């Protein structure tokens, strides 16, 4: 790092400490996790520091067929694991029983070798699966994800050896909290805590469970959609959207096509609605497995064409759960000191509201103002007005409000295009909170569309983490 930069960061600026985020990870009772899964995390040696978990395994052991759905990055430089997972889902018509993930190396932009390595991980993990009793097609049944540095090849022999250890007397696979936590830790790169959640829901009097994990702290602005090849791609409708990786497991039985439709809907409102720094990764992937382990043999798979009520309940539960997981990524944003919800109301369409919320959430001027605890609503308006909409925007109907998370009074700063006299002390109180909301109302009325984005501020710590300062 140059002497000028050293002087700037050490003397000129008072840097606020980044708050600890570890309280977002708490033990979960083992009984809260879905049945029919085995998981673990292993140290293979992808990460140089001894003992750090860098390979995760998730296996479905249900006697029923396991459905698999995924949303993948739309980045033109799709990483090898993305391409391979798309092929597995396509060839098996939406069925898969396992997931293997490594951290420490993204296996992205690695050419032919990268593809061979991703397939090698699939084949080795396939060997851990019990024989299929019914319904699962022959062929590869493992999906693969990678995260870490782009442009470097995997230490594949170390990874394969780690996977192989799980069938050679060194197995640490389990379904208790410790096993789920090990798998979640294996996802981590610059994350400061493992991101793991669970919840229960009921359909037609039967209880099912969801559990999932994700990772991400930098290079976060996902735009993911269903697989681009195979039968699952044909069912996609409408606009589709460090690396974001996530997986969600349920013991409900859901048909592959309906699982994909529910996930696509959920991802648009969760993982496609978060931003840390506005940069889309080459590896972004969200996978859902539904193994039916909590359904009896006579219970049919949930399918939107056969039981709309059951499907809508499942879609709602999956969406809310995905939002909870997605928020954890933003809370762990590199250098972030604020968690900010950007709500856009009164828009002509959901897509209009989503585009504006995205633009506000990715504006460097807005994000630096949030860090400085400055209610500079002019920057928010400038970002709002930069997006072409499907119908004309009427500036005289637009309002902007800051909403605190502590239940105290909100602070309108613009009402129907007219600026309010802002109480700067009150504005500072709201923006000094760790959580708050920015509401942009376009004035389209209560029946108009609403979209939410979850974002964070830009701090000096973010620059330090992502800059290449050589002392």
Explain this structure:
It is built from 13 helices and 17 strands. It is an alpha+beta fold and 471 residues long. The protein folds into two domains: 22-331, L-amino peptidase D-ALA esterase/amidase, CATH 3.60.70; 339-466, Ubiquitin-like (UB roll) (Roll). The strands form three sheets. It has a seven-stranded mixed β-sheet with strand order 10-17-12-16-13-14-15, with helices on both faces. Strands 6-7-9-11-3-8 form a six-stranded mixed β-sheet, sandwiched between helices. The chain has a four-stranded mixed β-sheet with strand order 1-2-4-5. Strand 6 (195-203) and strand 7 form a beta hairpin. Helix 2 packs across helix 3 and helix 7 (256-269) crosses helix 8 (308-331). It starts with a helix and ends in a 5-residue tail after the last helix. The model is unreliable at 1-5 and 234-241 (pLDDT under 50). Its main location: mitochondrion. It catalyses: L-glutamate + acetyl-CoA = N-acetyl-L-glutamate + CoA + H(+); N(2)-acetyl-L-ornithine + L-glutamate = N-acetyl-L-glutamate + L-ornithine. Its EC number is 2.3.1.35, 2.3.1.1. One of its GO terms (cellular component) is mitochondrial matrix.
Q: What is this structure's SSE topology?
A:
Blueprint: H1 3-12, E1 37-42, E2 55-60, E3 67-73, H2 80-91, E4 98-105, H3 111-126, E5 142-149, H4 156-165, H5 177-186, E6 195-203, E7 206-215, E8 224-225, H6 231-234, E9 245-250, H7 256-269, E10 274-275, E11 285-290, H8 308-331, E12 339-347, H9 350-362, H10 364-371, H11 377-385, E13 399-404, E14 411-415, E15 418-419, H12 424-431, E16 435-441, E17 449-456, H13 460-466
Parallel strand pairs: 4-5, 9-11, 10-17, 12-16
Antiparallel strand pairs: 1-2, 2-4, 3-8, 3-11, 6-7, 7-9, 12-17, 13-14, 13-16, 14-15
Helix pairs in contact: 2-3, 3-4, 7-8, 9-11
Catalytic activity: L-glutamate + acetyl-CoA = N-acetyl-L-glutamate + CoA + H(+); N(2)-acetyl-L-ornithine + L-glutamate = N-acetyl-L-glutamate + L-ornithine
Protein name: Arginine biosynthesis bifunctional protein ArgJ, mitochondrial
Enzyme class: transferase
């Amino acid at each position: 790092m140059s002497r000028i930069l050293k002087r700037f960061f050490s003397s000129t600026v008072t840097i606020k400490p980044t708050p600890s985020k570890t309280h977002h990870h708490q033990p979960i009772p083992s009984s809260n996790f879905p049945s029919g899964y085995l998981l673990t995390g292993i140290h293979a040696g992808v990460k140089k520091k001894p003992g750090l978990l860098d390979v995760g395994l998730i296996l479905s052991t249900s006697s029923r067929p396991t459905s698999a759905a995924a949303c993948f990055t739309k980045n033109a430089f799709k990483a090898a694991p993305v391409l391979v997972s798309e092929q597995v889902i396509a060839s098996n018509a939406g069925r898969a029983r396992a997931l293997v993930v490594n951290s420490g190396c993204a296996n992205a932009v690695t050419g032919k070798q990268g593809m061979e390595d991703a397939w090698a991980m699939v084949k080795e993990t396939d060997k851990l699966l019990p024989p299929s009793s019914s319904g699962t097609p022959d062929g590869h049944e493992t999906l693969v994800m990678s995260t870490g540095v782009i442009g470097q090849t995997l230490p594949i022999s170390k990874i394969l050896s780690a996977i192989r250890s799980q069938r050679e007397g060194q197995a640490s696979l389990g379904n208790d909290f410790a096993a789920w936590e090990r798998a979640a830790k294996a996802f981590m790169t610059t994350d400061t805590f493992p991101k793991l959640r669970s919840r229960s829901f009921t359909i037609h009097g039967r209880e099912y469970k969801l559990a999932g994990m994700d990772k991400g702290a930098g290079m976060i602005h996902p735009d993911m959609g269903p697989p681009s090849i195979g039968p699952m791609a044909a069912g996609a409708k409408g606009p589709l959207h460090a690396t974001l990786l996530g997986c969600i497991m349920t013991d409900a039985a859901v048909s592959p096509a309906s699982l994909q439709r529910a996930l696509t809907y959920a991802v648009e409102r969760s993982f496609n609605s978060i931003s840390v720094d506005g940069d889309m990764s080459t590896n972004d992937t969200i996978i859902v497995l539904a193994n039916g382990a909590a359904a009896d043999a006579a219970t049919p798979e949930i399918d939107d064409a056969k039981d709309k009520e059951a499907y809508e309940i499942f879609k709602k539960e999956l969406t809310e759960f995905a939002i909870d997981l997605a928020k954890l990524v933003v809370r762990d944003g590199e250098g972030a000191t604020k968690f900010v919800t950007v709500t856009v109301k009164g828009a002509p369409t959901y897509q209009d509201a989503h585009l504006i919320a995205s633009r506000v959430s990715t504006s460097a001027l807005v994000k630096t103002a949030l860090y400085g605890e400055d209610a500079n609503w002019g920057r928010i308006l400038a970002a709002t007005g930069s997006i072409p909409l499907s119908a004309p925007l009427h500036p005289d109907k637009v309002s902007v409000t800051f909403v605190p998370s502590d239940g105290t009074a909100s602070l309108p700063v613009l009402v129907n295009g007219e600026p309010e006299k802002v109480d700067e002390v009150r504005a500072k109180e709201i923006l000094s909170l760790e959580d708050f909301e920015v509401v942009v109302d376009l004035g389209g009325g209560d029946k108009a569309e609403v979209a939410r984005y979850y974002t964070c501020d830009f701090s000096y710590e973010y620059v330090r983490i992502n800059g290449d300062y050589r002392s």
